[in-house]
Amino acid sequence: MLKKLNKIARAVAAAEKAKGRIEAVFVSDAVIRKLNKKFRKADRATDVLSFEIAQDGILGQIVISKDTAKRNAKRYGVSFDEEVKRLAVHGALHLAGYDHAGKSDRMLMREKEDHYAKKIR
Predict the structure, then answer these.
(1) To 5 degrees, how large is the angle CA 74–CA 52–CA 61?
(2) How far is Cα 82 from Cα 80, in angstroms, rounded to an integer?
(3) What pTM, to 2 d.p., does this model score?
(4) Where are the alpha helices (DSSP H) in 1-121?
(5) pLDDT band, residue 121 (cuts 50/70/90)
(6) Running DSSP on this structure, what letter comes out for residue 120?
């Protein structure tokens, strides 16, 4: 599964003209909560975090909480595989420079997510 997610993330980043290797990893809610607290000052679990590395041919890392992805898949009525694909796309878009801080940014990022999610089915 991770091999497939890495391939998806690289394809999205490349389509967005971002270059470099991307690694996707699965972690627990406990681990992603610690990362979220340390790097984003948010003391809660989240579904996905992206860390830009941008050195030695590496673009970055996408960290996905398997626990949250399972809950979200149920909540949204999709398979676990579909949910983690969406998270890989989301993380790759962050590594390509997209954000969702403002309303227009959120709308653009959602459009991009939908576009790539349809392409990779």
Answers:
(1) 45
(2) 5
(3) 0.91
(4) 2-15, 29-40, 66-76, 80-95, 103-119
(5) low
(6) T
